[in-house]
Recover the amino acids of this structure.
């Protein structure tokens, strides 16, 4: 009986730990960036211009990482464009960062969904790494001071976009990151 | 230290010491490898980071695009003059604790750091307990304890002269009674042998206790069967002469802390510790850092595909390769007879070959 307790107790505890591990997503990397100042970068845009994050200080930035081969990015593309149309008059800038992609495929994607907000390519992946990107699509919302107020992994819906942009316009920092269906980077 | 005094012509001792130190310095790898090239530095930093794409590979080992880009970032930062710790801190600030392959000892991570030690301690404690249990001698007291009154009766009856089974008629007895009588006879014989000096006190004590317990069990069974009147049984005589006291029992302490037991304990403990150490050492040895992209992380001297340490092994491996795989070198022929000469399999024995006189010169 004592042996049963001595062996069974730790074994059960270990089993419990494993069971707890099964409830967690091993791929998810919790971001430490929410509430921190966003890393500045300069992005070469598809239209040939250069856009620096510093220029957007004083505006709320909706920073979206995407790739043309990612189905969830396709799923949210039309919603993002619609949100851009609604918010561009309200001191909000949408900015798309294309990562791990071919240029033609990315251009075709922009054309297919009629995207009008500025987009650029991060060929070396430096911006993605500076934002700790590990999945697609990933979205960061920056307030007027250039602070990251929200991060979402996975496709965004209209409600989340409007809520989180409204919070960022008021300078409210989210406590948690959002999570939807995503695809890992490659 | 008179040999180090230079005046006495023992300056060579100093020179030898100096040469030895110089040799040590030259052979000291970290000093020689102080200027590792950039690739190696990148690899060393990347090996500490966990690849975000593949769960269980380091950034150094992963072939994924993300890992490649991360190695590029590490290279850029190294070239910009950042230290390895600064680069690690950079990735830590972007990805959090997740990115470190070796987690920082805090919070739930402590489980990973302390768990092995706790498990080792628990295992050692369990092993000690188990060895102690094995080493314990089977004691006579561990038999099912017989009723002391019955044992007393056995002692009384076994030595009673009026209770001689050879006189009584064996026909009318039940099997139980026959068994009892046999045990009594054995007990009497034991006492006789002991008094004759054929038995050691320890053996006598153990055997007596054994037979007594068995006889007591038989007696108890007999008493129970006597309650059922159908079974005819000759009752043992109630009055018998008082039992003669058995020769003195062996002291308990002699059995408990016997040197044999201690030996068993020590040998068991040493074996367990040696086993655990060997396991730990060889398991640790059988995994090594990847040397190249095509290299595996397993294998060492045990599996025969590890780095070659001794010259003899290298020579042996070359020989095997030549013999089995390549056959690059044709066997050399002796000058004298045209017989192929094989290289000695034990070159360190190096028996000098005596040249034979040649019958005809080439």
């Amino acid at each position: 009986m004592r042996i049963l307790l001595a062996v069974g107790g730790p074994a059960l505890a270990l089993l419990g730990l494993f069971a707890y591990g099964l409830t967690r997503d091993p791929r998810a990397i919790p971001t430490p960036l929410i509430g921190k100042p966003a890393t500045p970068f300069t992005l070469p845009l598809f239209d040939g211009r250069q856009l620096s994050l510093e220029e957007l200080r004083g505006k709320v930035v909706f920073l979206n990482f995407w790739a043309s081969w990612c189905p969830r990015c396709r799923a949210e593309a039309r919603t993002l464009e619609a949100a851009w149309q609604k918010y561009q008059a309200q001191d909000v800038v949408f900015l798309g960062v294309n990562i791990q992609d071919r240029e033609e495929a990315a251009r075709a994607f922009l054309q297919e969904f009629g995207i009008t907000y500025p987009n650029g390519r991060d060929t070396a992946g430096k911006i993605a790494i500076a934002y700790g990107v590990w999945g697609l699509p990933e979205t960061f919302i920056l307030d007027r001071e250039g602070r990251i107020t929200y991060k979402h992994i996975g496709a965004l819906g209209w409600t989340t976009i409007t809520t989180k942009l409204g919070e960022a316009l008021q300078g409210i920092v989210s406590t948690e990151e959002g999570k939807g269906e995503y695809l890992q980077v490659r | 230290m008179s040999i180090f005094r230079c005046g006495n012509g023992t300056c060579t001792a100093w020179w030898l010491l100096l040469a030895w130190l110089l040799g040590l310095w030259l052979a000291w790898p970290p000093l020689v490898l102080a200027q590792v090239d950039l690739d190696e530095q990148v690899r060393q930093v990347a090996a500490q980071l966990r690849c975000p794409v593949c769960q269980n590979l380091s950034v150094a080992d992963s072939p994924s695009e993300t890992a490649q880009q991360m190695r590029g970032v590490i290279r850029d930062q190294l070239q910009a003059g950042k230290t390895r710790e600064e680069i690690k801190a950079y990735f830590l600030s972007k990805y959090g604790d997740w990115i470190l392959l070796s987690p920082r000892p805090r919070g739930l991570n402590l489980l990973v750091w302390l768990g092995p030690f706790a498990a080792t301690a628990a295992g050692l404690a369990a092993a000690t307990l188990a060895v102690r249990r094995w080493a314990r001698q089977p004691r006579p007291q561990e038999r099912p304890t017989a009723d002391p009154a019955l044992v007393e009766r056995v002692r009384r009856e076994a030595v009673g002269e009026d209770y001689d089974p050879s006189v009584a008629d064996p026909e009318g007895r039940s099997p139980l009674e026959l068994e009892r009588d046999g045990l009594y006879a054995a007990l009497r014989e034991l006492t006789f042998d002991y008094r004759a000096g054929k038995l050691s006190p320890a053996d006598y004590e153990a055997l007596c206790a054994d037979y007594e317990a068995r006889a007591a069990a038989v007696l108890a069974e007999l008493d129970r069967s006597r309650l059922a009147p159908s079974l005819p049984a000759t009752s043992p005589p109630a009055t018998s002469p008082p039992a003669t006291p058995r020769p003195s029992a062996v002291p308990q302490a002699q059995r408990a802390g016997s040197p044999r037991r201690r030996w068993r304990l020590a040998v068991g403990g040493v074996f367990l510790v040696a086993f655990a150490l060997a396991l730990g050492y060889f398991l640790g040895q059988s995994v090594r850092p990847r040397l190249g992209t095509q290299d595996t992380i397993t294998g060492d001297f045990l599996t025969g595909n590890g780095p070659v340490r001794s010259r003899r092994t290298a020579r042996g491996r070359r020989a095997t390769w030549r013999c089995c795989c390549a056959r690059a070198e044709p066997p050399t022929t002796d000058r004298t007879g045209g017989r192929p000469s094989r290289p000695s399999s034990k070159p360190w024995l190096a028996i000098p070959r005596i040249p034979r006189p040649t019958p005809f010169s080439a």
In short: The two ends of chain A are 52 Å apart (CA to CA). The first strand of chain A starts at residue 42 and ends at 44.
